[in-house]
Structures are given as C-alpha cells and as structure tokens.
Amino acid sequence: MADEQKECIFCQIVEGKIPAIKIYEDERSLAFADINPLADGHTLVIPKTHTETLWEITPGDLAAVHQACQKVARGMKEALKAPGITVIQLNGAAANQVVMHYHVHLVPRDRGKDKLKVLEWEAKPGNMRTIEKLAKKITEAI
Length: 142
What we know:
There is one protein chain. By secondary structure, the chain is α+β, with helices and mostly antiparallel strands. The chain has helices at 3-7, 9-14, 59-80, 111-114, 128-141, and strands spanning 22-25, 29-33, 43-47, 84-88, 104-109. The chain has a 5-stranded antiparallel sheet with strand order 1-2-3-5-4. The longest helix has 22 residues, at 59-80.
C-alpha cells in the first residue's frame, strides 16, 4: 500500500483501523456519518479504493459511489423527513478538499430551518461571450 493510502483517514476507516458510524456499505462503496456535520444526518460516501479526485476515480467506482449516494439520500428523506439534500463533492486543495480521498457529502436540508448560508449563493448573469468561449474550449479538450 502506498504511503498516501496508509495515511489516508478514509482508507483507515475502510480497513477498520479507525472507527466510523457506518450507514451503508457494499463491495465498492462506504457511507458513514460525518463527525463534523453541517446539519443533522450529514453523511460522507466514499469509494473503498483509494483515489483522490474526480479526475482519477474509475468509472466503476464513480458509478458505485453515486448509486450509494442515491440509496442513502432516499434513506435520509424517509428517516429524517428531509425536504431537501445538498450534494457536495470537492476536487483538489484549491476547491477546499481537505481529505484527499474522493468523497461526496450528503447534507439533509430544510432551508427555512437550517440557516446554512455557506450553501447559498445569488445567481448573477454572466458574460455570454465569455461563457460560450470557455464552453468551446472545454468541448475541444474533451
């Protein structure tokens, strides 16, 4: 196992070396309670295989994680009566990814009650020329 995996807190959770409050598990993914929750029920969903970001995750692990997200989200909706769920996935330190193991945050939401302003932003019209130019650049890179 590479050093980065040995030191990865999420890999240690997968291996059972660090305890976690497990919510869901299958052969490729694991969901567990976030110990620094933004809201009651905040859950993390990870691939069991170490991978850092969306750029590196295999298509199979990506599918497994997001299928697990859907199962957990349905459980949240039923068990917590959550009228909404915010899904957050950060890639790289520049995007504020703290644990360098691909993970998805599922945060049960009720905007009228939870007051989580960090998850709010005002939509402002962009420059359409710039938007089109950047979209073309991305399309060409694909």
